Amino acid sequence: MSRRRKIYEGKAKTLYEGPEPGTLVQHFKDDATAGNGEKHEIIDGKGVLNNRISEYIFQNLNDLGIPTHFIRRLNMREQLIKEVEIIPIEIIVRNIAAGSLAKRLGLEVGTKLPRSIIEFCYKDDELGDPLVAEEHITAFGWANPAELDDIMSLAVRVNDYLSGLFMGVGLQLVDFKIECGRLFEGDIMRIILADEISPDSCRLWDVKTKNKFDKDLFREGKGGLIEAYHEVAQRLGILSETENALSTGPRLVK
Ligand code: UDP
Fold this sequence. Notes:
Layout: E1 6-9, E2 13-17, E3 23-28, E4 31-34, E5 39-42, H1 46-64, E6 70-75, E7 78-82, E8 85-86, E9 89-96, H2 99-105, E10 112-122, E11 131-132, H3 134-139, H4 145-167, E12 171-185, E13 188-194, E14 202-206, H5 216-219, H6 225-235
Helix pairs in contact: 1-6
The chain binds uridine-5'-diphosphate.
């Protein structure tokens, strides 16, 4: 039994107190939810894969000078992160029309957008994370205009990096969601990337077949989610062809 202090429990992740001040442990669960929690299943091994995929992306972003909360992997399901004050906004970046944008504007799913579009949703489960404008964010003080500028430039840099990363392994980055937080270091406050980036929070389509490799498989009740996430990890070179991140039993050593 873990005696760690739980700081927060979300739908797919739990945060625990970290080993040093200013740190937290981010634990990836196997829970999959959609429709604001209406649909809920446990998908064995999803947490392990998301921990590894998110780690890979955040470590690369850190190395590129795009600041994130990621410090290091602790185990199969957990990573050490910097504690931040989460800004209560989901930042959605879109390259191709899909999901709620396609529905809202009557666009054909798969239409290439004239340019990348950034949208904001207010993080509130009871309200169903409503779409909001910059005006709401600054008027209600969720973030100030300077912070919003930093958030938008971070979002654009992450989109550039992720689009190239996934295109290199034959996947189209349709859209994704990020969250940002305020990191306090002495008198200085910086906006950094928080939460996770994984196939739970991105739409990824195979360039040739247009097959989906993301949480839409679950949202649409199609199955094959673990196989798809596993393939994303494999294509990124995170898991070798033979490594099975899900196997817990003894392995045959040749
Ligand atoms: N997204 C997410 N969490 C949310 C809402 C959206 O990670 O609470 C991601 C989603 O996976 C997709 C992008 O943000 O990659 C855009 O989602 P959209 O607004 O189209 O909402 P959806 O149709 O997925 O509800």
